[in-house]
């Protein structure tokens, strides 16, 4: 009897320990707690709301794209020089007229007729004068030299000078480094000077094909 008690007691203790070990509370307290690692956060790619800058060659001002072409500018110069060029000064008894204005590529050619009147000639519509066939290349003109200046009889001149003052302007009977055209109105002279400068710039930027 005593032997049976000795054998049963250890068995009961073992059973109690086994039940305790299998219980949820014991299992939870006995386990090593693991800290959950947060999921890696993907680095967001910043999307800029600002438009991408265009290459320098694409950032051309709209004004330059809308500017008149060389042909349009030369046609305008030819029309205005024939229609409104020249002056007639009764006080100095001198008049100037432009005709036969021609443009070919970057060449400007025109006839300037200057007449000198006496009172009798003016009344009769006659008088001595001089005709000059003037020709020059627009690319030979110094852009900084273009000026509107006052002329005799209240007229205005658009004066030009060649680059480095080289005698490249054909005046018919001689070569010169400068010449000019004349207008009765200052506003028209200013417009002509602006258009002439534009044509000269286009010709100077134009490259030879070969």
Could you tell me the number of beta strands?
A: 9
The CA-CA distance between the termini, in Å, is 130 Å
Percent range of helical residues: 25-40%
- Count of DSSP-assigned helices: 6
In terms of per-residue confidence, which ranges show pLDDT below 50 for 5 or more consecutive residues?
29-36, 44-48, 54-63
Beta-strand content = 25-35%
Structural class per helix/strand content? alpha+beta
Apparent shape: globular
Mean pLDDT: 78
Task: From the alpha carbons, calculate the radius of gyration and give it in angstroms.
Answer: 48 Å
What is the oligomer described by this structure? single chain
Which series of helices and strands comes N to C?
HHHHEEEHEEEEEEH
Please outline the major beta sheet: 4 strands, antiparallel
Strand order of the largest sheet: 1-2-3-4
List keywords for this structure.
210 residues, alpha+beta, four-stranded antiparallel β-sheet, three-stranded antiparallel β-sheet, 6 helices, globular
How would you characterize the overall build of this protein?
About 35% of the residues lie in helices and about 25% in strands. Helix 4 packs antiparallel against helix 6. The chain is globular, with a radius of gyration of 48 Å. Mean pLDDT is about 80; it is low at about 30-35, about 45-50 and about 55-65. With about 210 residues, it is α+β, with helices and mostly antiparallel strands. It contains 6 helices and 9 strands. It has a 4-stranded antiparallel β-sheet. The N and C termini lie far apart (about 130 Å).
């Amino acid at each position: 009897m005593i032997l049976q008690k000795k054998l049963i007691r250890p068995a009961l203790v073992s059973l109690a320990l086994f039940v305790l070990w299998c219980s949820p509370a014991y299992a939870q307290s006995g386990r090593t707690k693991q800290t959950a690692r947060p999921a890696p956060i993907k680095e967001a790619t910043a999307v800029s709301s600002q438009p991408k800058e265009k290459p320098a060659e694409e950032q051309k001002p709209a004004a330059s794209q809308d500017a008149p072409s060389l042909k349009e500018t030369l046609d305008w110069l030819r029309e205005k020089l024939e229609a409104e060029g020249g002056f007639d000064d009764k006080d100095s008894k001198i008049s100037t007229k432009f005709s036969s204005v021609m443009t070919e590529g970057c060449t400007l050619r025109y006839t300037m007729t200057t007449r000198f009147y006496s009172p009798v000639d003016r009344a009769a519509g006659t008088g001595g004068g001089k005709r000059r066939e003037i020709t020059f290349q627009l690319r030979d003109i110094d852009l900084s030299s273009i000026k509107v200046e006052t002329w005799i009889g209240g007229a205005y001149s658009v004066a030009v000078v060649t680059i480095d003052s080289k005698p490249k302007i054909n005046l018919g009977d001689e070569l010169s480094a400068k010449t000019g055209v004349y207008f009765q109105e200052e506003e028209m002279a200013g417009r002509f000077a602006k258009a002439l400068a534009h044509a000269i710039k286009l010709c100077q930027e134009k490259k030879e094909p070969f």
